[in-house]
């Protein structure tokens, strides 16, 4: 009897540990299926149709309001390790002056570039104080009227 309860507890603990190793899968942005992509037809669909089928674009081109991008990706993270990109998709939709779709293309992931953030700080005039210097410098700063002699009768 004691062996059976120990075995059951060991099996339950093993199942609990295995379930903790299950990867966390998250989707960011607008990841479109092949069927959804086929819903939009060049020279037939309009801007309103695209919004109706796919929703608003992830981003609009900075230099051309007639170019929309739908960007999405799926990430997988196991435990405390950094998330890894499993699938990334960027779809470019272009429109003409009458809001008709002129082209739908899937942008190749090899064209994507990682953007490195700049860690520089903008220089400012003046002296840099530590937290302790700032605290000590502020003592009595806001109570100067109590130390001044009162004038008048």
On the 0 to 100 scale, the average pLDDT is 83
User: Largest sheet, described in full?
Assistant: 5 strands, antiparallel
Distance between the termini: 97 Å
Number of helices: 5
Radius of gyration: 30 Å
* SSE series: HEHHEEEEHH
What is the total tally of β strands? 5
Shape label: flat
Give a nutshell description of this structure:
The chain is an alpha+beta fold and 153 residues long. The protein contains five helices and five strands. The N and C termini lie far apart (97 Å).
Structure description:
By secondary structure, this protein is α+β, with helices and mostly antiparallel strands. It has five helices and five strands, in the order αβααββββαα. Strands 1, 2, 3, 4 and 5 form a five-stranded antiparallel β-sheet that branches. The longest helix has 19 residues, at 2-20. The N and C termini lie far apart (97 Å). The model has no long low-confidence stretch (mean pLDDT 83).
Features:
153 residues, five-stranded antiparallel beta sheet, alpha+beta
SSE arrangement:
Layout: H1 2-20, E1 24-29, H2 34-39, H3 47-54, E2 59-60, E3 67-77, E4 84-95, E5 101-107, H4 131-138, H5 144-147
Antiparallel strand pairs: 1-3, 2-3, 3-4, 4-5
